[in-house]
Design a protein that fits this description.
Arc Repressor Mutant, subunit A; Rossmann fold; two-stranded antiparallel ribbon; alpha/beta
Length: about 270
């Protein structure tokens, strides 16, 4: 067992994972990579299920838990269950909690989400790196084709970004996953991919980003944490977080970032073409 004390929160767990994952042996790094992409599975899966999904033996998964400071898998799973029960309960529980607190009236909810949006936008304005944003716009403005993927909670952001680019006559392909069709063959050398995903991360989004990077193409990541699997692809990363209301997260800051990107790309392309 590691001499370190076990992480007591998901945030602490993620920071430790980021610090030590690159120095881990191959099999333990497989465990780390799988967990980073599937943190939502830890609380509800067995060690046999997780090790099989990560492509390692259960003994390797147990060693990973110990390296992270836990006595074993059950110890690590307990932390995940407690964290998720408090922060991200199921939707029925979230609604019950809102009713119990008396904050479920339409006007109260609107006020709460407006305030959450304000805080999210202020955080985005103060935390976004201007140089990274500038570099992202420059890459996208000069791309022969922009590819966009965002599934589950990221889907509205990706679809809006695709819509905005289309209205500005900017060549773009939206990989929406409809019909389980795979459009990765449309990605050509020199194209740029915008990959949008938040915890728990979409495997399809990560895989398309891996494919694009494998072709030598640039990937612009819009994601929420430093342990996002897109970080490992050396994607140009724009971090954005949303303040929640009763564990319900809006997309105020993320949509603002998306439309800012789209308009900036359109303006930059217009300057280039003149």
């Amino acid at each position: 067992m590691s001499d370190q004390t076990a992480p007591v929160s998901l945030e602490e767990f993620n920071h430790r994972l980021l610090d030590i994952s690159e120095s881990m042996p191959k099999r333990l790094r497989q465990c780390a990579d799988y967990i980073a992409q599937n943190t939502d599975r830890i609380a509800v899966s067995t060690v046999a299920e997780l090790s099989a999904a990560a492509g390692v033996q259960p003994s390797a998964f147990m060693r990973f838990c110990q390296l992270m400071g836990f006595a074993g898998f059950s110890d690590m799973q307990k932390m995940f269950r407690e964290t998720y029960a408090l922060k991200w309960p199921d939707y029925a529980t979230r609604l019950d909690n809102l009713k119990a607190s008396g904050a479920d009236s339409p006007s109260a909810l609107l006020a709460e989400f407006v305030e959450a949006g304000r805080l999210s936008l202020e955080n985005l304005a103060s935390s976004i790196d201007p140089e990274t944003l500038e570099q992202a716009v420059d890459l996208l403005a000069h791309a022969p084709m922009i590819h966009i993927i965002g599934l589950r909670r990221a889907f509205p952001v990706a679809s809006y970004l695709s819509y905005a680019l289309e209205k500005m006559d900017i060549p773009a392909v939206f990989h929406d996953g409809v019909g389980k069709l795979n459009h990765r063959h449309t990605i050509r050398k020199g194209d740029v991919l915008i990959a949008i995903t938040f915890a728990p991360y979409s495997q399809e989004t990560v895989e398309l980003a891996q494919y694009a990077r494998g072709l030598g193409n640039e990937v612009i990541a819009i994601t929420d944490t430093i342990t996002s699997p897109l970080q490992k692809l050396r994607a140009l990363t724009l971090h954005v977080t949303e303040v929640d209301v009763g564990a319900f997260r809006a997309l105020s800051a993320t949509l603002s970032l998306a439309i800012s990107l789209a308009v900036a790309i359109g303006a930059r392309r217009d300057q280039t073409e003149k």
